[in-house]
Amino acid sequence: MPLLELRRVEARYGGLQALHGINLSVGEGEVVAVLGANGAGKTTTLRAISGTVRTSGELLFSGSRLPRRPEAVARAGVAHVPEGRGTFMELTVEENLRLGAYVRRDRAGVKADQERVFERFPILAERRRQAAGSLSGGEQQQLALARALMQRPRLLLLDEPSLGLAPMLVAELFRVIGELNQEEGLSVLVVEQNATLALSASSRAYVLEVGRVAVAGTSDELRRNESVRRSYLGY
What we know:
Elements: E1 4-13, E2 16-26, E3 31-35, H1 42-50, E4 54-61, E5 64-65, H2 70-76, E6 78-81, H3 93-100, H4 107-120, H5 122-126, H6 137-149, E7 155-159, H7 167-184, E8 187-191, H8 195-201, E9 204-209, E10 212-218, H9 219-224, H10 226-233
Parallel strand pairs: 3-8, 3-9, 6-7, 7-8
Antiparallel strand pairs: 1-2, 1-4, 4-5, 9-10
Helix pairs in contact: 3-6
């Protein structure tokens, strides 16, 4: 049974339909990528899962219907790192991390997880009392990921994590994501414009076009797919 399953999911912004019957799944401990051009529905798919856009169809998490309120989705074990990072710029690094654990009540566990996050992201430990707005773009992306991990999620939703970052920082970010997946079994659904990077980091992938799944398969299959190669891989 998949950890996450979308069946015939549609989504709307007022009168505009953004998703048209999406079918998608993420297995336990799996990294899955979502590719597509701007306006294809990638971000809306993540918003549909996290409960921040009106949807119809079935959204199942661990076999049960996923709640439609963002806080309830977070309590169920889904953490969402939105495009643009969503950090609270006027708050310190530590305050941002504490906000990431807002659905938890285990204070000792939260404190231990904060120290674990600081071990994984040493630069955040150095900047723990700085305002998030004073961090570089790469440090802010690390903070956004660290804050999501403070939820102790089973599924991590990542929306364009490489956006605006230097290649070295992107490589480091995806190295950490890979470690979390391998060492802790964290499931990841990542939306990423860099198709080469996304396919190398994932086991399966979906290509969205105008709110529909156009191609789906293993990452190796998509690398060999001629239309995917031409449109997204540049060869």
